[in-house]
Design brief:
171 residues; Mago nashi protein; 4 helices; globular
Length: 171
């Protein structure tokens, strides 16, 4: 339990310091599901200023990778892949047809209480997840995601890996 709290606090501190690219969809600017002045500056693939639906982050097993995917309510998305402080790739994407309704349905099944989506003792060496939806922040560990959250985590994790997205608009 203490390890989870320390991990969550560390992730939140890390997210709070991301403010150096002048307008990208970084964690410090996109965690809320409503438009804010900073989030409104970020435009999606078609110039979208739609509010953020969900923010999802995957930290690699060794901590050297930090991948985020922001989905806006209109189905546009922003992928950010960072590699251990040595730079990264940033892409504006769009969800494939039919993916947004599946994601919304999966997000609706997230637990209504608590902040952890992890159950049991996941094996060491897996990825850590951070998910922000409707003003709530959840954490999870690969191999121990609660059944109600597995569809949402699987879909969002797939978006980071290029599954269910299309139209690479910018890089």
């Amino acid at each position: 339990m203490v390890r989870r709290c320390v991990l969550a606090a560390g992730l939140l501190l890390l997210l709070g310091g991301c403010d150096d690219d002048g307008g990208g969809a970084t964690a410090s600017r996109t965690p809320v599901a409503t438009a804010t002045p900073a989030a409104a500056r970020v435009e999606g693939p078609t110039g979208s200023k739609a509010p953020v639906l969900v923010f999802f982050q995957r930290q690699g097993a060794a901590g050297a990778t930090l991948d985020t995917f922001v989905v806006r309510r209109d189905g546009s998305g922003r992928l950010e892949k960072r590699y251990g402080g040595a730079g990264g790739r940033f892409k504006d994407l769009a969800l494939k047809r039919g993916e947004l309704p599946k994601l919304r349905a999966a997000l609706a099944r997230l637990p209504r209480d608590g902040s952890t989506l992890t159950t049991g003792s996941p094996p060491p060496g897996g990825a850590n997840y951070l998910l922000r939806y409707r003003g709530r922040t959840f954490t999870a560990r690969e191999g121990g995601v609660v059944p109600a959250a597995r569809p949402a985590v699987r879909i969002l994790d797939g978006f980071i890996d290029g599954i269910g997205v299309r139209n690479r608009v910018s890089e």
